[in-house]
Amino acid sequence: MSHITVQPVIMAGGSGTRLWPLSRAQYPKQFLVLQGNRSLFQQAASRLAALDGEGLSVAAPSIVGNEEHRFLILDQLRELALPPATVLLEPMGRNTAPAMTLAALQATANDADPVLVVTPADQTVTDEPAFTAALRQAVRSAANGAFVILGITPDRPETGFGYIRTNGTAPNETQVFNVAQFVEKPDAATAERYLAEGGYYWNSGMFVVRASVWLKALERFRPDIASATRAAFAAHQVDASFVRPGKGEFAAIPSESVDYAVMEKCPGSNEFTIHMVPLAAGWSDLGAWDAVWQVSEKDAQGNAFIGDALMRDSRDTLVHATSRLVGVVGLDNVVVVETPDAVLVADRSRSQDVKHIVNQLQTSGRSEHTLHRQVHRPWGWYDSIDAGPRFQVKRIMVKPGASLSLQMHHHRAEHWIVVSGTAEVTNGDKVILLSENQSTYIPLGQTHRLANPGKVPLEIIEVQSGSYLGEDDIVRFQDTYGRG
After folding, report:
1. 260 and 180 both lie in a single domain
2. Exposed/middle/buried for 37, CB within 10 Å: 0-12, 13-18, 19+?
3. Which of 279, 301, 328 is the last residue of a domain?
4. Using one digit for the tens of pLDDT, what is the confidence trace for 383-416?
5. What CA–CA distance (Å, rounded) separates 181 from 201?
6. ∠ CA 225-228-229 to the nearest 5 degrees?
7. Do 380 and 336 reside in the same domain of the chain?
8. What is the pLDDT of residue 81?
9. Pairing, β 412-420 against β 237-239
10. Fewer CB within a 10 Å sphere, N or C end of the chain?
C-alpha cells in the first residue's frame, strides 16, 4: 500500500474572549495550560504527530497564527521536540477560509498534494487512541478525493455548536457517513429534537481534505477569496521559520469561515463528495468556563479547582486560582477565576456572556483584555509587581542566551538587582557581568542592554524611577527581534 502524506495544519489565530481573565489578546486560550502540563496548542500538535504510521507519513506541522503570537508559537513548539514547523503569519484576522487556503498553497508549493488535516489549536480530547483511529479513517477517505469532517457524537442538547445531519447509517467497518446538511447553532428546543431524532452530530471544526481538492472547491464557490489569497501568498516573504503573506494583499481578502465559504455548499453540489467520521473521544472545544468545568476532575460535590483553593458547602463550582489563595463558601454552579490583576465571578450557566465584560474593557480603553500583569516577550517575560507615583517595580526573566534590545529612556533611571543566574549588562560604553545578589544602576538617558550569557534563566528585580514610566518611553538602537 502506498504511503499517504499528511500535512497537519493548526489554526492558532483565535482570541478566546470567553475564557477571560485567563485568556487575553496577547496570550489567548490556545497557549494556556488548562489541565496537565501542556497548552491546548501543544496538545493539538502532539495529537496530529501521533497519526504517523499505518501507511500514513506525517509532515512537520504548518501553523497559521497571528503576527503578535509568533514567538509564543515557536517557544511552545520547541518544548515538544517536533520537527521544525512552518509558521504562516496572518497580519490581521480574516477567519478560517483564507487561513486554510494559505496552508494549502504552502503545502502545494513544490507540486505536492498532501492530505491536509486541519484543526483549531484550542480543543481538547480525553481519549487520544480513539481520536487517532477516527482521524486515520478520515485521512484514508480524503486521500480518495472526498472532503471529510469530524462529527462529535452529541451527549447533551448543546446550543453553542453548529450541527451536521448525516444521510442514513454507515457500514460498521468503515464508519464514514455521507453529509446531508450543515445546520446552524440551534435554539434549546431544536437541539433537544436533534438529540432525540439521532443522525445529528456537532461540527468539530476539524477538516480533512487533499490540498488540491480544497483549492478547487474554493475556486468553484468563492473565487474572490481564492484569487485574493493567492495574491497575498504570491507576495510572501520568508524570515527564518516565519512565512509572511503580503500585508496589503492579505487585508483585501474577504473574511469568511471554512463552513460558509465551502463546506455548507458541498452537500448540494455534484462535484464534491463530503463525508463525516464520528468522533467519540471526550472532545471539547473549551469555548467557555462551563466547558472547562465539564472536562475537569471533580470532587464528590461536583466542584473542580485549579491552584490554591478552599471550598466549603459548595456544589458544581469551578475555582481557578493563579496567584493567591481563593476561599469559596456556599456557592452552587459558579465560576471563580483569579489572576494577579483581575477576578471573574460568574454563574456557570452564563459563562458564554463573559465576552460582554471583554467588550466593556475594550470600549473603555482598558488594557486588561489584552495584557496579563506578566507580559511575555521573545526574550522571556516581565511582571509588574508594584507601581506608584514616580516608581515602578518589575520582576524580569531572561531566557538562556537571550538579550533585550540596546535601548535608552528619556524619562526614567533603572536599578537592577540579580536574583538568580548571570547578567551581562551594557551600561554606556562599559560591559559588566553580575551574579546573584549583585546590582547596578542605569542613569536616565544612558544607552543600555540586559543579556543572559548563561545556561539557566536569569531573574532580576528592576526598580524604575522617573517622571514617566510608560512602555513607550523606549528608543531601540539594535534589536534581535525585528521591533522598531
Report:
1. yes
2. exposed
3. 279
4. 998 889 999 999 999 999 999 989 999 999 999 9
5. 11
6. 80
7. no
8. 77
9. unpaired
10. C
One domain for residues 91 and 54: yes
Is residue 368 one of the residues assigned to a domain? no
Burial of 324 (0-12, 13-18, 19+ CB in 10 A): exposed
E-strand spans in 268-390?
274-279, 304-306, 309-312, 318-321, 326-329, 334-339, 342-347, 374-377, 380-388
Helix (H, G, I), strand (E, B) or coil at 76: helix
Q: What parts of the chain have a pLDDT lower than 70?
A: 1-2, 168-174, 479-484
**Domain co-membership, 398 together with 348:** no
What is the domain range of residue 245?
A: 4-279
Nearest to 67 by CA among 199, 322, 243: 243
| Residue 381, burial from CB neighbour count under 10 angstroms (0-12, 13-18, 19+) | middle
Of 363, 391, 413, the domain-final residue: 363
If asked whether residues 307 and 275 sit together in one domain, one would say no
Burial class (CB in 10 A: 0-12, 13-18, 19+), 238: exposed
Which three three-digit cell numbers place residue 74?
515557536
- How many other CB atoms are there within 10 angstroms of residue 227's CB atom? 13
Check residue 174 and give its pLDDT: 59
| Assigned C-alpha cell, 112 | 505536492
**483 within some domain:** no
- 148 C-beta neighbours (distance < 10 Å), count: 29
- Residue 445 has a CB neighbour count (10 Å cut-off) of 13
